[in-house]
Amino acid sequence: MMKQRETGIYTNDFLEFIGSGHSTVPKDTYDLVVTSGGMGEGHIPLSGLDDLVRVAKNGGFVIIVMRHEHLQTVPSYKDKLEPYMDQLEADGKWKKVERRTVPNYFCDKEGLVFVFRITKPE
User: Fold this and answer.
1) What is the layout of strands, in order, in the sheet containing 94-106?
2) Radius of gyration (Cα) for the chain, nearest Å?
3) Model pTM?
4) How far apart are CA 38 and CA 17, in angstroms?
């Protein structure tokens, strides 16, 4: 089986920790940034949201899909994740387009879908 890298379908390939503050991904690169299952215990920290905003183009979208329960069970997200998302909106970095609960996201557990439109000042 051929590995994705060997197919040549990707023009950029980055292997980094999101939220470390040392990203080499060029800013304003992507029209759409998606993370599914990346938000959880020991996964993407709050500062990772800044990285998602940074690499997305103005007018582009960031979509975050995660387990609903993580808002209460992950200490680094409890009472912090959504307020941080709101702060990014208050700072003019993005605008929330949608927050939707979805059934049976993982093992019969509810999921959350957040959709944000990037609104960075020029």
Assistant:
1) 30-36, 56-67, 109-118, 94-106
2) 15
3) 0.89
4) 11
Partners of 98 in the β-ladder: 115
pLDDT in tens, 93-104: 999 999 999 999
- Separation of alpha carbons 5 and 107, rounded Å: 31
- Tell me if 102 sits within 8 A of 110, measured CB to CB: yes
What is the Cα–Cα distance from 106 to 122, expressed in whole angstroms?
39
